[in-house]
Amino acid sequence: MIASVLASAVLLWAGAAAQNPNQGAWYSNGVVYQIYPRSFQDSDGDGIGDLKGILQRVDYLAELGIDAIWLNPIYPSPNKDFGYDISNMTAIDPVYGTMDDFEELVAALKNKSIKVIMDYVPNHTSDQHPWFQMSAQGHSDYKDYYVWIEPSSYDVPNNILHPPNNWTSCFNGSMWEYHPGRKAFYLHQFLKYQPDLNYRSPNVVQAMKDVLTFWLGKGVHGFRMDAVFALVENDSWRDEPYLGGPPTSYNSYNHTMTAEQPETFDKLRQFREVLDSYAYTHDNVTKIMMTESYNSDYEDIKEYYGTPTAPISTFPFNFFWITQGTLSTTASQWATIINNWYNQAMPAGGWAQANFVLGNHDQHRIASRLTPQHTDIMNILQLMLKGTAVVYFGDEIGLQDSQLRRDQGVDPVGLNSTSGEFLASSRDPERAPMPWNNTYNGGFTNNSRPWLPLATGYWDVNVEAQRMANVSHLQVFKSLMELRKNPTMVSRSVAVEAFGNSLVVYRELSDNPTFIAVVNLANLQQTVDLTQSRPTLPPTLEILVKTVSYQEIEIGTNSTSSVANSSNIVLPPLTGLVLKTF
């Protein structure tokens, strides 16, 4: 039965070039490829990925057709939180290499027209950072670099010092840690090893701006700013409203005092000014600022964009595909998730930049969170939409989570969970190394023990195997990237519609070819009549891209086609096509 159009899930969106400062910028239709450096390629046999390893894979990155790589932290760190506890923000951790290695990598990528984006952690440092060491000692120049408060009370009989309030860390437990040397509590929104910087200190603000300028001078073209929601706290120090649940759990409170305070946006705006000023005075190439906050309130998200005259983020990450997209999400719901970002999260006026994120180092992989068959479907949707696409390494080959044992885990979040919750809560599974081939440890390292076990099945799911295969997720991804870079695609508006359990993305421009993605999200065959909403479509459409599942069915039935009937597109379960008008 031919499904009917759900008209409520329709969007037509096109930022007018005259109003949109992003139009034509390198990232406006760009693809940012996230690399978790520990897991990409090991060059020295210690079982940990490094900068020279990434350098060895530059040709692969160019082969993908990406516009930039985003590197997770490569700074010196005690690794209590795998690089997000930084002890020196302007150096390279020796486990990853040297500054010379970094500069060589930037140069090699530049020769391939690939830019570098650094992870920037503005909220906190390691407790081993010299700034914190001197602040804890009360050194006059660093005394106010962190948030220090004296105990609220002292329980003499039990010898207990009480923290200032009930604020709870993102990793659970009190947000306050007593330091006997300073005789005060310091704030840590995350681990106790990650003390929060005090952004009410002008010296801290300037020091963090200097960090940005340092890396811009090294040829970096932007920053992913970590956990920006936590940058500033309300200095009334009042308790946060208790919502119920375990008193030590972060989710048991409404974080009105510690998340997204007004001053946070002012500090972020100042960071953006550093990037814009550097671009203006140096190479006139836009430097981007991607901000991380898992906020589901559209009005709050808009604040991260700023205004046309006082911009903040180039874009705040769009995590709704991760937080709301599940196996039970219908086509209509997917259309709403996509359209809501264009219509509600982005400020009006056509000047803001859209973005779509499918996965990252903190979330289970697409092929595990959904199914391996969803790999091509999700990549089609992401790469056919208008805006910046952020791709997590390995998702182009349908890499799945590593099913490691608890005793093999290293992530503190997972290790602090109960044994039954380890795989669900740990971030280790999605951080497992990249499989390059079917040799021992997938060609990632010649060490007998990589820092994390590779995903089971890497001998089949690896880059070399998919490069050589006629039908593979990698081939589909590369075809989509080639299409995305086609000049006839770039300026088109986008419309998203649901047809029963199928989702359709149109990229349209008057009197020009129309590109259409059609994906079946159901476990049942679907038939789609595109002429119900586009009656002027020609009767026959050219097929440009087919998902692996679709191609495998064609091979199994010994039938193949390069065209589709616009009024009768038959899609087997969990398959998809990209089409074009002749």
TrEMBL record:
It is an enzyme of class 3 (hydrolase). Transmembrane segments: none annotated. The keyword ATP-binding does not apply. Pfam families: Alpha-amylase (PF00128). GO terms for biological process: carbohydrate metabolic process. Its EC number is 3.2.1.20. GO terms for molecular function: alpha-1,4-glucosidase activity. InterPro entries: GH, GH13_cat_dom, Glyco_hydro_b, O16G_dom_2. The keyword Transcription regulation does not apply. Keywords: Glycoprotein, Glycosidase, Hydrolase, Signal. Residues 34-431 form the Glycosyl hydrolase family 13 catalytic domain. It catalyses: Hydrolysis of terminal, non-reducing (1->4)-linked alpha-D-glucose residues with release of alpha-D-glucose. Residues 1-18 form the signal peptide. Belongs to the glycosyl hydrolase 13 family. This is alpha-glucosidase. It comes from Lygus hesperus (Western plant bug). The lineage of its organism: Eukaryota, Metazoa, Ecdysozoa, Arthropoda, Hexapoda. The gene is Mal-A3_4.
